[in-house]
Amino acid sequence: MQKSTKSITQILKFALVSFTVTAIQLILVNLFVYLMKDWKTPVSGFLTLFFNENSVGAGNMNWGFIMPFLLSNLLANIYGYYRNRKYTFRSDPPKRNLYIYIGIILILILVSTWLQGVTVHYLHGFEHSVIHASAASIAAMLAGWLQFVILFPLEKYWLLK
């Protein structure tokens, strides 16, 4: 298979896996938002630098607001990593690449979780609308797009080569 055809095929496969990852994340984020809505324990430590009232809104500096985005993203990306390793890139990378991936994905998830919090805070300004009601889903899709743009080249050219 020519190199350009192989790359296009891999992008399409990666996009399909990413679509599945996004679907998993959407289902999980909405389930976790519902299940954790009463968990009001405030975040602390260095997380308050990212998750504060200015970024995520008043009353949202708690684990019940942040954890649904964090957990849904982590679980969906673990699934995506293994699917891409096996089917998209057909790779058997060294074990250290998995550890590197976990480190990178944790940083990316922290950034994505912050981005989702900021997005939901902004979208909640559209009170009594479909946008307000769909804020968690829209935020999760935005995070999924960001991760797609970062993870495809990272996995193709380095981690799953």
Set down the secondary structure blueprint:
Blueprint: H1 3-36, H2 47-50, H3 53-56, H4 63-88, H5 95-123, H6 130-133, H7 135-159
How would you describe the overall organization of this protein?
This protein has 161 residues and is mostly helical. It has one domain. Helix content is 78%, strand content 0%. The protein contains seven helices and no strands. The longest helix is centred in the N-terminal third of the chain and has 34 residues, at 3-36. The two termini are 16 Å apart.
Give me a quick take on this structure:
With about 160 residues, the protein is mostly helical. About 80% of the residues lie in helices and about 0% in strands. The chain has one domain.
The overall strand count is 0
What's the total helix number? 7
Outline: elongated
Structural class assignment: mainly alpha
What does the main sheet amount to?
none
Mean pLDDT: 89
Oligomer: single chain
Give the key terms.
161 residues; mainly alpha; 7 helices
